[in-house]
Amino acid sequence: MYRQGDVLVWPVQKIPGSAQAGIRDNGKIVLAYGEVTGHSHSIAESATELLEYEGARYLRVPVEGASLKHEEHETIELPAGEYRIITQREYTPKAIVNVLD
Amino acid sequence: MAGHSAEGVRERWIALGLSTRPVDRVQAEKALRRAYFCAGLTPPRTFMWFPSPASALIALGAMQAGEQKIFVTDGVRHQIHSQVFLDTIGAFEDRFQKKVGGGVGRDVLVRVRDQVVTRVRSLILRELADQTSDFGGSAMKTFEIEVGSDIYRAITAAPRKLIPNFEVVETFFDLIDIIKSLQTCAWGWSEDYWLAAYEASMRECPTQPPMDVLNRFVSLVQVREQLSIFFPFGDVVLCSENPLVVKRDERDRLHSAEGPAIVYPDGWGVWAWHGVRVLKDVIEHPERLHIADIETEENAEVRRVMIERMGWERFIREAALRPLHSDDWGTLYRKELVGDPEPLMLVKVTNSTPEPDGSYKDYILRVHHELRPLMDGNILGEPQKLTALNAIASTFGLKGDEYKKVLVQT
């Protein structure tokens, strides 16, 4: 399990088979954007897949691995595997909200 | 364009992107006419100059609000952007170089994008977007009062014979929807890094592009050498002056502890603390910050900066936070809320990556008062023992035992 700031990358046994390919931004997989900083948690490797299923996001990292980068955090080298992406949340009495940064 | 190393190209583009030099309007207009001409378009006849991208945007909205929307239709906007910029890049790729590969061009692209677009220009754009989407907000209201008359003068100085049926709307509040739709039509927000990368790549290549491709490319470079942000339309271009000040910290993040980190000649600007955009008072009057401001701030980064400016000791004291538990993972606080059976539970966590001075950023996050994991679909997990570890785990929808399995944290 890997954590970079407000993003957690959690190994899973298997990504749901009917997960659909997610959209890249300028060729990169962006796991989270920083609204007030312009920064982002992102993966540039084209062989890594972003997948989505019922609102959850997953990563499929090939044998060569992938680098999870952010302007303010040290890079995390992800080994090959399948992962679930979890964004940090905050509690409010009305709803659970994703942490904004 | 010979005679510069890739490093020289990179530094030149970064300097251009951060330039505080006043624009040479004659040269800028000449470069814009040439860029249109090279793209096969009729050069524009009217150039309107504004002291900041904010005033240009507001003026644009004001003009669009006239009865006849003369030049700012979506079709025209996209046509100009497509013909002047995208087609030039397309021709460059089709007829000369397929892609910026992994060599110096890639390095230049990444560095210019990081220094100019990510760390500076995207913050200007987001500030504009925030202010125009929150028209009743204090920042834009102040701006309206301070520079509204300047904007009006700039608008009415445009040659009316070229813009028939031109009207200025009565209040800024009428403009909000129009301006929102126009925010993306500025040229120059993010194109720099592509031009820089192609310029560097071109130097590595033993051959030159075909002359017409080269001319179009050079015409765009010359535009960017003269001005940074402008709104191009068919016959009219709205241009913004460069900022007077761009202040950054040692890691090239927008930062100023005294005033705005970016300020334009009309006073419009961006206040930032080590790369985080904040309101003016957070920088200039931290003594005016109240606990309620912090507790209601939705953005965790902004909240962190507000507390940092206020001082952690003062925040904890004035917020009447009672420490419940501390461990290696953080500190858990509780606050009773008058008239509310549910207490406020906060966890203070520390960033794993140090700042250049060796210090670490602290953040504060609200958690459920029973530390129930915050799961998908607005579902709360089972209550947990009140520890800092369990509190942090709950923010990822996990229990403390699960969260302890984190292998790498940065």
Strand residues, percent of chain B: 15-25%
**CA gyration radius of chain A, whole angstroms:** 13 Å
Order of helices and strands of chain B: HHEHHHHHHHEEEEEEHHHHEEEEEEHHE
Interface with most residues:
A-B, 35 and 42 residues
Roughly what percent helix of chain A? under 10%
The gyration radius over C-alpha positions of chain B equals 25 Å
Strand order of the largest sheet of chain A: 1-2-10-7-6-3
The SSE string of chain A, one letter per element, is: EEEEEEEEEEEE
Q: Could you explain how this protein is built, in words?
A:
- The complex is a heterodimer of chains A (101) and B (410).
- Chain A is mainly beta and 101 residues long.
- In chain A, 0% of the residues lie in helices and 53% in strands.
- In chain A, the strands form 3 sheets. In chain A, strands 1-2-10-7-6-3 form a 6-stranded antiparallel beta sheet, with no helix packed on it. Chain A has a 4-stranded antiparallel beta sheet with strand order 4-5-8-9, with no helix packed on it. In chain A, strands 11-12 form a two-stranded antiparallel ribbon.
- In chain A, strand 1 (2-4) and strand 2 form a beta hairpin.
- Chain A starts with a strand and ends with a strand.
- Chain B has 3 domains: 2-242, no CATH class; 247-313, no CATH class; 321-409, no CATH class.
- Helices cover 45% and strands 15% of the residues of chain B.
- In chain B, the strands form 4 sheets. Chain B has a 4-stranded antiparallel beta sheet with strand order 4-5-6-7. A 4-stranded antiparallel beta sheet of chain B has the order 8-9-10-11, sandwiched between helices.
- Chain B is elongated, with a radius of gyration of 25 Å.
- The two termini of chain B are 42 Å apart.
- Chains A and B meet through strand 1, strand 9 and strand 11 of A and helix 5, strand 7, helix 12, strand 11 and strand 12 of B.
